[in-house]
Amino acid sequence: MNAPWKAGARDPFAAYLCDDASLDVLRPIAMELGWQPEKCGKGGLRSAVQSLSIAASPNILMVDLSESGDPLNDINALAEVCEPGTVVLAVGQVNDVRLYRDLISSGIHDYLLKPLSPAAVRDALIEAQTAFSTPKVVDTGGEKRHVSTAVVGTRGGVGASTIATSLAWLFSAEDKLSTALLDLDIHFGTGALSLDLEPGRGLTDAIENPSRIDGLFIERAMIRANDNLALLSAEAPIHTPLLTDGGAFLQLEEEFRSAFDMTVIDLPRSMLVNFPMLLADVNVVVLATEMTLASARDSIRLLSWLKSNAPHAQVIVAANKVQAAFSEITRADFEASIERKLNLSIPYDIKASSNAAKLGQTFVHANRASKAGTAMRELAQLVVGASENTDKAAPKKALLSKFDFKTMLGKKDKADAAPKPKAKAKAGR
């Protein structure tokens, strides 16, 4: 919107606050930042609109919404008189997440809750200075590309969680991509343990109150492992059953798509069976297996299931903990049984696993130079490469709402009818 003609040059800062207590907090900080304390005036948002309709808007503007009966409508009126590039901070006394989200969506830089604290005001003003001085990125109109990867183990103990945490760490620490790690083993997950973190209550709260899930919830509930990696996991009491229709998990995935470049889901087989819609927007599935007869059988079943329920996803089959001399089945027999080639083989390294546990680090972080660590880096590259082939095949986000979850949950598992491992596999036992 084009603002009306204004007289005079732009000031670096101006504030319109309704109460003396807030002004007493603000003025010393404004002086500390080199601004004139006279620019911190009495009055709310409507006073700001009246003043700025005849004067140039400042670089940074702080307005009080406390006396506004319709904050969003009044913010729109403020937009009419503000020049492009003005960074606006709102102050109010209503602690409501929906209002916060609506204000941010309308273009407000931040919303501060009364009573104001000097530390919060100082941080907000410094961030506003940075936002004003940072060159704006031109939006080309293209959608943000997000890659979602699910890691599924054919059997318990094959190392799916080790692979999931290592992939998440590689994407975040080495590729510098903002990454979300979602550990869906609600009762016995090891994602937080592998990163030497406490799991917190974020995932449990999300399951119990799906309506709370939004961008602000994600920001507060996820545990930071490094600058680019955030974890959401749980350690629910084992006497507490999992009671959910899966809707919370879908909402979490949707928020991750907006907030992160990558999502890595540690997806237990039981969750895959109970909530097949979790793979609706997954680009890549890493099927972690081992060279045993049981894993060969379950690889066949899971590959058949994925073909029927997630045909859009690229599937990578990775054999983990491989000991060529001690395997139940040779690689050739295993591949013949599952009727496809293994994409990757990760050697067994008990010393490396022990080292990671002692250091409280992911396997690949603690063992960068090991053969197993090198193989996991190769797996990360395969995931990124495979995801590039799924952009056109992946279902559109709008289609997600059309799924009938109850019907999907009741769908018969076609994988049960999959062929059993061939005789060649049995012979290698």
From TrEMBL:
<dbReference type="InterPro" id="IPR050625">
    <property type="entry name" value="ParA/MinD_ATPase"/>
</dbReference>
<keyword id="KW-0547">Nucleotide-binding</keyword>
<protein>
    <submittedName>
        <fullName>Pilus assembly protein CpaE</fullName>
    </submittedName>
</protein>
<keyword id="KW-0067">ATP-binding</keyword>
<dbReference type="GO" id="GO:0005524">
    <property type="term" value="F:ATP binding"/>
</dbReference>
<dbReference type="GO" id="GO:0000160">
    <property type="term" value="P:phosphorelay signal transduction system"/>
</dbReference>
<dbReference type="InterPro" id="IPR027417">
    <property type="entry name" value="P-loop_NTPase"/>
</dbReference>
<dbReference type="GO" id="GO:0009898">
    <property type="term" value="C:cytoplasmic side of plasma membrane"/>
</dbReference>
<dbReference type="InterPro" id="IPR001789">
    <property type="entry name" value="Sig_transdc_resp-reg_receiver"/>
</dbReference>
<feature type="domain" description="Response regulatory">
    <location>
        <begin position="15"/>
        <end position="129"/>
    </location>
</feature>
<keyword id="KW-0597">Phosphoprotein</keyword>
<dbReference type="GO" id="GO:0051782">
    <property type="term" value="P:negative regulation of cell division"/>
</dbReference>
<dbReference type="GO" id="GO:0016887">
    <property type="term" value="F:ATP hydrolysis activity"/>
</dbReference>
<dbReference type="GO" id="GO:0005829">
    <property type="term" value="C:cytosol"/>
</dbReference>
<dbReference type="InterPro" id="IPR011006">
    <property type="entry name" value="CheY-like_superfamily"/>
</dbReference>
<feature type="modified residue" description="4-aspartylphosphate">
    <location>
        <position position="64"/>
    </location>
</feature>
